[in-house]
Amino acid sequence: MKIDLSPIIKETRTKDDVRMLRAGIEVLEMNLYGVGAKSWDSVLDKILPERFSANFKDLLAQFSEAEQPEAIKEILSDLKKAVSKFRPLKIDLAFEPTNEIIDQLNFWVDEELGLEVVLDIGYEKTLLGGARIAFAGKYGDFSAAKMITEILQSEKEKILKEITG
């Protein structure tokens, strides 16, 4: 049976989300046959953020109580494969992004690079503004600090002439 994991995959936005999802998968695998069907909701609520647990619950609602352990086993197996395919996009920002900004970045990444890319967001105040981005072996520095340095270098003679008279 083919199970649509896209709601869970779509919620996996950052490297931290991947870490939480992997930990949740491990806990679910360890408890696969020790949890009664009615207890899955509380187990999911305890080990996963709400946006993930809600999607898991929606998936499980498609199966009868008797089918749930095998369905969960298949979901976890497929999810492990999907998570292993994620590629990180490293982005250093000059500020700590809000969830809204992470959502906007993630929307752009999904549109341009696909769902199998997750954000690895860093905070680097020396950038002053803009961002540094690394993905698939390529690197770009789009920071204000770099732009200022380039302007100072390219306009060095003009700047010195202005300030020294």
Structure description:
- Helices cover 56% and strands 16% of the residues.
- It is α+β, with helices and mostly antiparallel strands and 165 residues long.
- The protein folds into 2 domains: 6-84, no CATH class; 87-154, Protein Binding, DinI Protein, Chain A (2-Layer Sandwich).
- Strands 2-1-3-4 form a 4-stranded mixed beta sheet.
- Strand 3 (130-135) and strand 4 form a beta hairpin.
- Helix 2 packs antiparallel against helix 5 and helix 3 (40-47) runs antiparallel to helix 4.
- The longest helix has 17 residues, at 68-84.
- It is elongated, with a radius of gyration of 22 Å.
- It starts with 5 loop residues before the first helix and ends with a helix.
- The model has no long low-confidence stretch (mean pLDDT 87).
Task: Give me the secondary-structure topology.
Blueprint: H1 6-11, H2 15-30, H3 40-47, H4 50-60, H5 68-84, E1 87-93, H6 99-113, E2 117-123, E3 130-135, E4 138-143, H7 144-154, H8 156-164
Parallel strand pairs: 1-2
Antiparallel strand pairs: 1-3, 3-4
Helix pairs in contact: 2-5, 3-4
Short overview:
Helix 6 links the parallel strand 1 and strand 2. Helix content is 56%, strand content 16%. The chain is elongated, with a radius of gyration of 22 Å.
Note the main attributes of this structure:
2 domains, elongated, 16% strand, Protein Binding, DinI Protein, Chain A, 56% helix, four-stranded mixed beta sheet, 4 strands
Mean pLDDT: 87
Largest sheet composition: 4 strands, mixed
Succession of helices and strands: HHHHHEHEEEHH
Q: Domains counted in the coordinates: how many?
A: 2
Task: State Rg.
Answer: 22 Å
* Helix content percent band: 55-70%
Strand content: 15-25%
Distance between the first and last residues' Cα? 79 Å
Q: What class, by secondary structure content? A: alpha+beta
Spatial arrangement of strands, main beta sheet: 2-1-3-4
Shape type: elongated
The number of helical runs is 8
Number of strands: 4
Low-pLDDT residue intervals, each spanning 5 or more residues: none
